[in-house]
Specification:
alpha/beta; 2-enoyl-CoA Hydratase, Chain A, domain 1; six-stranded mixed β-sheet; three-stranded mixed β-sheet; 11 helices; 9 strands
């Protein structure tokens, strides 16, 4: 369990997220993920990083239980910093990051995927930001890199989801495959990149980041300010309490 990193093939390093049951990462997990991606990119033998996950889904965002167990704002601040660090590590990785998405990709998962270079998804993958239903904001910066502006706004306000097939239609997901073929599909793309000259690939990553239309770091940090404001005002605690009550009621009914 945790964040694991290994060399899969010549020039290809794989970073795997494994936090059962749903890959909702605690603060330490986000920082560990950032460290693993950065270390993989710093390795001069690496020409591409594959980011993947074990379990039912790719990522369910932050660990809400960690937040609820904290009577102050320390957990929230660490989660904010951890998410920022992990998203930035993917975007700033010295080599391209190919992300393989299985099952659900929610909240912080959108931050990772939106900052990736190439996205491959299983045919059961879904993508969404349920933040407004949790009394928080964030990662609209990264969702806007996956879908057109007005669809991003609709998804954000409604906490709606899109399928991998829909994102493939928009061109943000490169390939959709059956789940059993996901790792192989990600490796196929990764090996294609790894076959190029590493010096050129690293220069290409810097060049593409340099011509990006949006400063993703500044934009996401701006969003985080509103999440902190909602927490300081007590709004987030109130909404999370209602959410917990609803879950408890659903369990009783089942």
């Amino acid at each position: 369990m945790g964040i694991n990193r290994h060399t899969e093939a010549d020039g290809v390093e794989v970073v795997t997220v494994d936090y059962p049951p749903v890959n909702a990462l605690p603060s330490d997990g986000w920082f560990a993920l950032a460290d693993a991606v950065r270390a993989a990119g710093r390795n001069q033998q690496t020409r591409v990083v594959v980011l993947r996950a074990e379990g039912r889904g790719f990522n369910a965002g932050v660990d809400i239980k960690e937040m609820n167990a904290d009577t102050g704002h320390t957990a929230l601040i660490r989660a904010n910093h951890g998410c920022f660090d992990a998203f930035a590590a993917v975007y700033d990785c010295e080599v391209p990051v190919v992300t393989a998405v299985n099952g659900f990709c929610l909240g912080g998962g959108i931050g990772l995927v939106g900052n990736s270079d190439v996205i491959v998804a299983s045919d059961d993958a879904t993508f969404g930001l349920p933040e407004v239903d949790r009394g928080a904001l964030g990662a609209a910066t990264h969702l806007a890199r996956l879908v057109p502006q007005h669809l991003m706004r609709t998804m954000f306000y409604t906490a709606g989801k899109l399928t991998a097939q829909q994102l493939h239609h928009f061109g943000s997901v490169y390939k959709v495959v059956p789940r059993a073929e996901l790792d192989a599909a990600a490796m196929e793309v990764a090996k294609n990149i790894a076959n190029k000259d590493g010096r050129v690939i690293r220069a290409a990553k810097r060049a593409l980041n340099g011509i990006d239309m949006q400063d993703v770091h500044r934009s996401y940090r701006y969003e985080q300010g509103f999440t902190m404001e909602l927490n300081l005002a007590g709004v987030a605690d109130e909404i999370r309490a209602r959410f917990d009550d609803d879950l408890a009621a659903q369990k009783k009914e089942s």
